[in-house]
Design brief:
Structural class: alpha+beta
CATH architecture of the largest domain: 3-Layer(aba) Sandwich
Number of domains: 2
Helix content: 25-40%
CATH class of the largest domain: Alpha Beta
Number of helices: 9
Shape: globular
Bound molecules: acetyl coenzyme *A
Order of helices and strands: EEHHEHEHEHEEEEEHEHEHHEEE
Strand order of the largest sheet: 1-7-6-4-5
CATH superfamily of the largest domain: Thiolase/Chalcone synthase
Low-confidence stretches: none
């Protein structure tokens, strides 16, 4: 499997920490120093499906392919605009694609899980070109009265078209049960024959420090395992792209593995935590900064609710795009 094209779509509205100060008992200083986040994009008129479609169209154009060339669409999301149909089905017609469509749910690790699924379909000969879309609208899942969580999240979508090739050097996925650490309860049910059994409260619930520990240990372990599987060391990776959950998580993983800060780009200051969309959107920014060059080795790592985690190593083979949409100065380094 190799990546043929990538795309991204963001809501127009940027919400700064200063704006959150008007709504919550919080401060720009607290959010910046604890998380690295300065602003995030929040959907106003946009929809998760619309963002997914925008990212998908750009990825297809970047790959030089048409929707008719797709053999499968895999979308990852915590919550689409509807419980069903899937986002993958909703974008299919607009893309004029005629192929199986499915949503895959692995929380923030969704993009890495989808890469692994696409790779398996391509390897087995069941698919040649697979579109992966990671589209998230966590602003709609957040509890906007909980300052401990709602300041973290943002909305956006990243997409990749993948096809036959030798770009994927290794991939490692993991999961363990851990609902209490990070969950969002299902909406209350109204079936007259079923007692209400949920805790009923809408919104993300998180044990922040436990999640922090999980994120650092699983990311460091998965990256090391993926490097071992590829017969490489982490020092061989030109770029290490982590799920943009929290700047301090990035720094802890970086220090634990001895990674040079200049090799760990971040856009969390502009986009916050966008769950499964964060790794492909960071890849998009790196690609559109012109810094990512053919032959470079990328290490991707994500972690999230489940608890799930995963990492992979990819040898990049695309030249930088002619029209750079994310100048290098918009990237920070962990
Ligand atoms: N503004 C001001 N004060 C706040 C805010 C806020 N937005 N949120 C919490 N506080 C207060 C708390 O009430 C607490 O006050 P107290 O000492 O008076 O009780 C104090 O700050 C410290 O709270 P902690 O929860 O202990 O803060 P911590 O240093 O752990 O930081 C954070 C919280 C940023 C969530 C951290 O635990 C973290 O980064 N965890 C990792 C989890 C994460 O990144 N999750 C993202 C989603 S999951 C994922 O993507 C995998």
């Amino acid at each position: 499997m190799r990546i043929l094209g990538i795309g991204r779509a963001l809501p127009a509205q940027a919400v700064s920490n200063a704006q959150l100060e008007q709504l919550l008992d919080t401060s720009d200083e607290w959010i910046r120093t604890r998380t690295g986040i300065r602003e995030r994009r929040i959907m106003r008129e946009e929809t998760v499906t619309g963002l997914a479609l925008g990212a998908a169209r750009e990825a297809l154009a970047d790959a030089g392919l048409h929707g008719r060339d797709l053999d499968m669409i895999i979308a990852t999301t915590a919550l689409g605009d509807d419980l069903f149909p899937s986002i993958a089905c909703l974008v299919q017609q607009e893309l004029e694609a005629d192929c199986p469509c499915v949503d895959l749910h692995a929380a923030c690790t969704g993009f890495i899980y989808a890469l692994d699924t696409a790779d398996a379909y391509i390897k087995s000969g069941k698919a040649r070109n697979v579109l992966i879309i990671s589209a998230e609208g966590l602003s709609r899942v957040s509890d906007w009265t909980d300052r401990g969580t709602c300041v973290l999240f943002g909305d956006g979508a990243g997409a990749a078209v993948v096809g036959l090739g030798e770009g994927l050097l290794s991939i490692r996925l993991a999961a363990q049960t851990g609902r209490a650490l990070l969950y969002s309860a299902a909406p209350a049910q109204s079936c007259p024959f079923t007692p209400q059994n949920g805790d009923g409260a809408w919104g993300i619930r998180m044990q922040g420090q436990e999640v922090f520990r999980f994120a650092v240990s699983s990311s460091a372990r998965d990256l090391q395992a993926a490097a071992d599987m590829a017969g490489l060391s982490i020092a061989d990776a030109d770029w290490v792209l982590l799920h943009q959950a929290n700047m301090r998580i990035l720094q802890s993983v970086r220090q634990r593995l001895g990674i040079d800060a200049a090799r760990m780009p971040t856009n969390i200051h502009r986009l916050g935590n966008t769950s499964s969309a964060s790794v492909p959107m960071l890849l998009y920014d790196l690609y559109h900064s012109g810094l990512l060059q053919p032959g470079h080795i990328l290490a991707l790592s994500a972690f999230g609710a489940g608890m799930t985690s995963g990492a992979c190593l990819i040898r990049w083979d695309k030249p930088a795009p002619l029209n750079l949409r994310a100048p290098a100065e918009t990237l920070f380094f962990a």
